[in-house]
Amino acid sequence: MIEMKRTFVVPPAALKMLSVTKINYTDYVFEKSDTSPFDNQYDLAREEAKLGEKLNIELADDHPDYAAKQLYLAHENALIQHLKRSFKRLEFVRGEYRIVPDDFARFDIVGNLVEETADKLVIHTKQALRMWEGQSDPSKKRWIGLRMGIFLIDELTRNARLDNPFALSYLLQVEQQLKAVAAEYQNMIQQVYGELDKLATNGIQVSLLENREPVVITASQTRLYGFKLLTLLTQYDLYVRALMTGQAKGLTDNKQTRNLQHIGDNMLRGLLVELFQTVTTMRSLPKRFIRKQLLDEGLLLKLSKAVKAGALPRLDEQILRYNRLPELLYVPNKLTEEEVNQVVDKARQAGLLNEVETDGATGELSELVGKDEEGM
Q1: Disulfide-capable partner of 220 in 118, 200, 251, 345 (CB 3.0 to 4.6 Å)?
Q2: How far apart are the first and last CA of the chain?
Q3: Distance between CA 308 and CA 357 in Å, rounded?
Q4: 3-state DSSP call for residue 203?
Q5: Distance between CA 235 and CA 22 in Å, rounded?
Q6: Spatial separation of the C-alpha atoms in residues 278 and 300, rounded to whole Å
Q7: Is 60:12 a contact under the CB 8 Å cutoff?
Q8: Where exactly are the structural domains of the chain?
Q9: pLDDT tens digits for 150-174?
Q10: β-strand partners of 8
Q11: CA angle 158-376-148, nearest 5°?
């Protein structure tokens, strides 16, 4: 557990150290931090950790850490004097308080919630297990399974959360596909249940076929859209069981069952194939690409060529303005309204918005964006 300490907010660069201390800063290269309360970015916490017990003992002038200690004490004293202007009656003991750059950072001490145990799902059919594993046999047509699909959709979600507008656009499409496939499975399952209910009214009690020794799949740390995919697998498993039950009871003939099975397979496989193609496309973009980079004229030109060639989707202005976002996603670092307007104007001028027609150009994204950029 983490011990809670008295916390004080001091904005970055609030303390003007160059005028407070006469120590020559060129004699010692100290640790720096962007959120440091000092204007020279001195990182008090990391320097304290480096010095350790040397802070509590006297050091000779010729000691190798003498300058580092004097620099630390000068910064610590300046910080305490700053705090005492607002909290005159408090005593500030080293190690018993902490400094944060803003109110939001007060709560950074609290870690993220995690699952106590891994998620587990029960699979009854061979078809669902095959859908989980995928097809890797080189002698047959290969396709990814849902196990890999979870990793891919998590990667797409991470890029969307970073404020990558193309990832957000793709994730919105995937979100709609997940809903559509789930609705189709649910519709078919309900139809079979409806037929079984009709039999029940005639005095015949029929249950859905199940496996007496089902397979348990363990999937740890599945969240958001990854978990949506996981629940889709259980729906697919139930869908297959419903089809087999209908066939076993003569509610559907063999041809109908095969056709419905083929449709159900293609819906989920098609989603996984599109997900693979989408993430492959995203990996051709510059590493950690974000919305603000649309203001980069050189990169904007390359993206414009890629969009016009059909290698990247055109962007919805409502996505660029944060008015249309995936339902399960929160983008923490949004641009200001002024920056958003600049991005939208640049995107419109470059022909990135979906209001502009294509000019028929073609090409691979890696060629159009440029292979000199570092991929995801």
Answers
A1: 118
A2: 36
A3: 8
A4: coil
A5: 70
A6: 20
A7: no
A8: 6-107, 119-282, 291-369
A9: 999 999 999 999 999 999 999 999 9
A10: 99
A11: 60
